[in-house]
Amino acid sequence: MCEKSKEYKETVNRVKDLIKKRKRHLFEKLPVVHKIDDGVSIRFFSAWSNSKYHKGVKYRKIDSIDNSGDKNYLAFLPKGTYINIRKHDYSECLICLDGKISLDIDGQIMTLDSFTEKCIKPNVEHSGKALVDTYIVVKIL
After folding, report:
1. Which of the residues 22, 40, 66, 118 has an alpha carbon 20 to 30 A from that of 97?
2. Beta strand pairing call for 39-42 and 49-50
């Protein structure tokens, strides 16, 4: 009976090790579970790109059926992500779909919450910080 018990324990330990290994692999593929106003969303970012400017930021271009020249993006900013000070020669509008982001636009501090928008004129310095996990649409005009 002791021999079966030892064999049983070894088998159980091997199974546990395999489960742990598989769980680690799965969690590398799955994102964090995001809570949004209407419930919980689990987002797979497999078709999303990583931002080359901001660690952790994922984005995806929104294709326009009407105008292939449109430049609209959906972005996910994890809590604590900083958007470095920048300015460019075009206008852009930021639409917060879910979350909260603090913006510094030419020295004026403001907060975008879910379902709010702020447009930024060309050549105006701006930066930001995601206060919680945040989804935004960036419309380049």
Report:
1. 66
2. unpaired
Map residue 33 onto helix, strand or coil: strand
* Total residues belonging to the chain: 141
Looking at every residue in the chain, the average pLDDT score rounds to 82
Reported as a single tens digit per residue, the pLDDT across 8-33 is: 888 888 888 887 777 666 555 555 55
Q: How many CA within 13 A on the CB side of residue 76? A: 19
Cα 53 to Cα 102: distance, rounded to the nearest angstrom: 18
Contact 93, 139 (CB under 8 A): yes
Is residue 34 within 8 Å of 43, Cβ to Cβ? yes
At a CB cut-off of 8 Å and minimum separation 6, what does 14 contact?
Answer: none
Single-letter code of the amino acid located at 19: I
User: Phi, psi at residue 133, to the nearest 5°?
Assistant: -55, 130
